Structure formats: structure tokens, C-alpha cells
Amino acid sequence: MTTPLRMDGVEVEVPDGATLLDAARAAGVELPSLCHDDRLRPAASGRTCLVQAGGRTVAACVTPAEPGMTVDTVGEAVRNLRRDAVALIASALPPHALADASLSELAQNNVQGASDIGALPDPLPGYGPVTDPAARARAEAVWGRAVPPAPGLRIPEMFEAARKGRLKALWITGEDACATDPDSRRVAEALDACPLVVVNELFLGETARHADVVLPVASWLEKDGTFVNFDRRFQRVRAAVRPPGTARSDFAVVQAVATAMGSGVGCPTPAEALAECAAGRSRLRRPLTRSSGPGGCCALALPLAGQARRSNPVCR
């Protein structure tokens, strides 16, 4: 079965289930796709593949082609939006990055650290696939709990599941999804359709306005922990001021919710959480390498599977 649609005035037919990015390729339309890799499930994080479709601005890599859809990839509006997306990515880079392509940071804070530690739907800490029985066995030996064998949902899949009534609860931490994710109208529809939406936020942003519960949390100036940049340097963060009012760190919020649900996390402080990660590194077969820098500072590097990495001697 095929799906007919019109792209930039050209009639195109693509297999059912194809995305608008697939349709653009079939029509010979060159569409930018900075974050796309055919070997991976699309995440729409770069937002450089934005198009106009059916009166909406959507990311082509995650939007299914629909029969009779009219798609515009060359209009001034979408070209301006793509330019703004690239400018947003560039604004997060250090001044020298555009000159020598030495990327040090990602567009959103601590994306690298979250990925390394396994806060993704399909890999475990150290990037062992959750579908791999051996990788699951290593994690189960460290955690003492069974690990589900099937991958979870990525953000666009969560929102789709919420709109279709299959997702009953969302807990959003560290992101204003209505401001950063493609097609904010559809994101808002997903939040409104989900029976329970909990948001950790500093401010009552657009996403928080759609939440059932808003938990006040601390900013990076008000908490302890680490951030991991693109080349996997650990950057130590210490609280400079106390959080205002009843605000807590995200770490403390997770601790409190786990305790209220009758299951302690087991790591009372961020330092102990990092120590647990280091203690489990050999059993997960993704070794951390450590080297001391000036003043006792250290850099920790997380090698990928089968890939050697040299630790940097100094934290920035």
C-alpha cells in the first residue's frame, strides 16, 4: 500500500508508514536533517528538517505522510525557522567551536551525561542495548532488579501515545517541551490528553501550564552535582545559594517521590550516586577512566563499547 501526497507541487507516492523526510527523498527534494541517521530512530532534536504540512509546522523526520497531504519545504517561513534552529544550536557552542569544529557542549544542558548514564529508552548505562541479554544481565547484577527486555518510548512516541490514550502519566524534568519540541500545538494536545502530567520547573512556562502537578525545583546555581560535556568531561557544580521557598533539587524530588512510593533510591547524595556509578563500572564493562588535575580536580571519560578514549587531564 502507498500514500499519495503533494510536496512542493510534485505528486509523490510513498509506502504506508513513511515519514515526510522519506517523501522528500522520494521527490528529489533536498531537506536538511542535521540530527538524522537512518540507522537510528528519529528524535527530531535538531529541528533543521522543519516543513509546513497541512497548515502546521512539523519536523519531517518524525511526521508520518498522510494521504492528500500538501507539504511546503521551500517557503520563507520554514526557511526562517530552520535558520533559527541552526542559530539556537550554534548559540550553545563555545566561541571557538564554529572556527575549529571542536564541539564541547550540546544544545541542552547535560544531554551527554544523561545519555551516558542510560537515561534513554533503548541503551543501558555505558550504551549496552537493552535488547541484548548479556547487557541486561550485567545491569541486573549491579541493580539487583530485572530489566525489561523491550525498549521504551522516545519523546515523540510518548506524545503520540498520550494523544491516542495509551500513555497514562508523564513526568517532565529539565525541559519546556512546548517551547523546544517540534509542533508545539500537538505537544500541548498530548499533555492535555494525558491523565496525569507532572512537571519539575523553575518557572510557570508553557509546559507547566498544561501540568496537573508542578514541582518547584532548584536551578544549577542552587544544587550540587556534575554536568558532562560533549567530550565527556565531568564538570563539578556546587551550590552557590540556597533554593528559594520550598524548591528542591531534581535529585531531592526523585528521592522524596521514591520514598513516598515505598522504594528508596539508595543514594542519599549526588556524590554517592556518582560513586555507585563508578563502583558498577567494571561489572557493566564500560570502564570509567580517571586522571587528577590541578587542585584535586579530575576528569572522567566514559568510553563507548569497543572504543578507547583518552581521559583529559584537566576539567574545564
SSE blueprint and pairings:
Elements: E1 2-7, E2 10-15, H1 20-26, E3 50-53, E4 56-59, E5 70-72, H2 76-91, H3 97-100, H4 111-116, H5 133-143, H6 155-163, E6 169-173, H7 177-180, H8 184-193, E7 196-201, H9 206-209, E8 213-216, E9 225-228, E10 234-237, H10 250-260, H11 270-279, H12 281-284, E11 289-292, E12 298-301
Parallel strand pairs: 1-5, 6-7, 7-8
Antiparallel strand pairs: 1-2, 3-4, 3-5, 9-10, 11-12
Helix pairs in contact: 6-8
How would you describe this protein?
The chain has 316 residues and is of the alpha/beta class. The protein folds into two domains: 2-91, Roll (Ubiquitin-like (UB roll)); 111-301, 3-Layer(aba) Sandwich (Rossmann fold). Helices cover 30% and strands 17% of the residues. The chain has helices at 20-26, 76-91, 97-100, 111-116, 133-143, 155-163, 177-180, 184-193, 206-209, 250-260, 270-279, 281-284; strands spanning 2-7, 10-15, 50-53, 56-59, 70-72, 169-173, 196-201, 213-216, 225-228, 234-237, 289-292, 298-301. A five-stranded mixed sheet has the order 2-1-5-3-4, with helices on both faces. The longest helix has 16 residues, at 76-91.
